[in-house]
Amino acid sequence: MLEITNLQATVADKPILNGVSLDVPAGEVHAIMGPNGSGKSTLAYVLSGRPGYDVTGGSATFDGADLLAMEPHERAAAGLFLGFQYPVEIPGISYLQFLRESLNSQRRSRGETELSAGDFIQLAREQAKLLEMDAEMLKRPVNVGFSGGEKERAEMVQMGILQPKFALLDETDSGLDIDALRIVGEGINRIMRDAGKGVLLITHYERLLEHVRPDRVHVLQAGRITRSGDIELARELESTGYAEMVT
Fold first, then answer.
1. Distances 190 to 5, 84, 169, 184, 196 between C-alpha atoms, Å
2. Whole-prediction pTM value?
3. Which residues partner with 168 through β-bridges?
4. Does the chain have fewer CB atoms within 10 Å around its N or its C terminus?
5. What residues contact 101, with CB distance under 8 A and at least 6 apart?
């Protein structure tokens, strides 16, 4: 589903990704772990098309199409979703308004019929309930006054509404307590893995992976994947850290 080959990228002319190669098939969850500054978030931003992240080599295909040739909105319409580590606040726009316009914008780009206000509200309530989130919170401005855990749970509601083919989740466990970790982990499994979709999950910690149970865990260091394994690799890193890893 997502195939990355020798991907290289710079930020402000500084090399960050130095040849990342990765293949994430449909129906699998792959986790990326690594120390600060290793290029984890850069990888997510490059794949999603964030401005200022310049690809200098390699390739990335999504469902067989050249991902890097698409504009950011085209990547989203094709089914790529980016979950932020620190979701931004947008005063003056309710979450419901934001989510409905996001969904209908994607539906229009695919030639699909837009959802009516009533159908959308029902969908939003269903997704909020599955994430154990009070649907009344969606009437508030986007992320304004939300705790870190509430922001991440709202991101999962958004993912459930948009139903992407592939999710890039950048440290979705930030700010989550024990119960929220379980709820978000179950949400990732229900929305993505169980539906035969793909996930690239960036995290510092093994705790969320115990709920998601990734198919593969990869270590990213100095802009390269230096080691891959199963969840036991994540447990090893939790115990020993990265100091003994060869870069």
1. 29, 19, 15, 10, 10
2. 0.89
3. 82, 200
4. C
5. none
